[in-house]
Amino acid sequence: xxEMLKGIAxxxxxxxxxxxxxxxxxxxxxxxxxxxxxxxxxxLDAALEAxxxxxxxxxxxxxxxxxxxxxxxxxxHLMVLADPEMVGQIKETIRAxxxxxxxxxxxxxxxxxxxxxxxxxxxxxxxxxxxIRDVTKRVLANLLGKKLPNPAxxxxxxxxxxxxxxxxxxxxLDKKFVKAFVTNIGGRTxxxxxxxxxxxxxxxxxxxxxxxxxxxGDVIAANGITGEVIINPTEDQIAAFKAAGEAxxxxxxxxxxxxxxxxxxxxxxxxxxxxxxxxxxxxEGVNANGAEAVGLYRTEFLYMDSQDFxxxxxxxxxxxxxxxxxxxxxxxxxxxxxxGDKELPYFDMPHEMNPFLxxxxxxxxxxxxxxxxxxxxxxxxxxxxxxxQLRIMFPMVALLTEFRKAKAVYxxxxxxLQAEGVxxxxxxxxxxxxxxxxxxxxxxxxAKEVDFFSIGTNDLIQYTMAADRMNEQVSYLYQPYNxxxxxxxxxxxxAAHAEGKWxxxxxxxxxxxxxVPLLVGMGLDEFxxxxxxxxRTRSLMKKLDTKKMQELAQRALTECAxxxxxxxxxxxxxxxx
Length: 577
Fold this sequence. Notes:
The protein is of the alpha/beta class. Helix content is 48%, strand content 14%. The protein has 24 helices and 16 strands.
């Protein structure tokens, strides 16, 4: 029987293929009293080690297929497995209650999950609850000798159907065979959606009950552009979906023709399209997709992939590789943004209830604790500057005094290197990432001292709306087109231009096809996004008339009170397909 569903369009693409149900194994168990608790602890250790090995393999695959940034979610999972407090409590429960490893594991992890989930005012801890739940499932499966679903084993064209896809599930999808996936829950900002866009696999999330309606072998038609899903479509419906898929493929082929083109609007205005990277090897994708710059190089992955602080020479080689790989095109390097969800095992950081709002990023760099680490990074960057067009960006700046302190370190290290006879480029721009509302509001003062702004919308929206974009219960508050967000962005752009400086954007919003017309109208100079979004965005910009977009932006800023009103208004100005 044919059934139609509507979900959230999470990743572009159209597919018609047989359903592959990703079924979770039965992980139920009996609580058993034991005498030999040492044997149970040994079973636990073996399951933890097996889980660690599995996740390490999945992480490596994720780095290759998704890049370093997307793979970092597995670092959080690996940290859970190695958490001495939690593992210690599980073993203590096994000993004290003389119970089997399964029961000890479940009791302690359930306690942590409940504790973290009840922290309504702490999105970071709620996200850790999800990590613990995923890891517990894997350890429990290893204790019980059960196998978790293995998406990597899919070897024919399929549409994956699941209640939800964990990051480890998504990272194992092979786009050669998996043409789309459809889930009961999830949204555009969930980890699985972000990974799907990187993999270029169509995805429709949040259908509520597709797993109850589908069985293996059913034919599924899924449209990740519109959010439409049809179970066992008719011949006519299949033909319509295939036509939509062919149209999308044709559109992508047309985008490819723009790889070597300049990014100009219909009326000839140029904008810079850049790409975000996490490692030097990501530069290949930047060039393959025709980006005009690297708008964000996240250097924290240098630290996260190392067993100890990376040396000055190690960092120099990485920065040099990126600058040379870009052949003189601009490269914006963000100084280390550790803290929050990015911890280093070799760097002792304080335990914080909400590390996203705590000791992280530039706050560490300009502290006594992080001073040596920061100076090493600045020296490496300055040495590498002669190999390309370097721009240095400081993250998580709230106060002008923070920028001044960081800039003073930069000036001191530059003077030292020059005194040592080391060549340093004389055209290095130094700017800040605008991701804290305080800095956005005071942009006019910052603009007098910085060379540029890059707006980090992911955090700016979260901090402005007080809503974690990964928390589905409050995801409705993550509103990129809310007039309050647009006004903050406009304030930053206008402040930069008033001082003759440029303003860019390096959050997901920069490649959002709904946001781009508004940002063009506001006069944003540089758009930095996932490399796979560059050509599509260039194609869109070719159709835009800047004067019309300026009128759209002005009306959105002055007439609209809600995100919905902004979206309705935009429809009046975009009359092309």
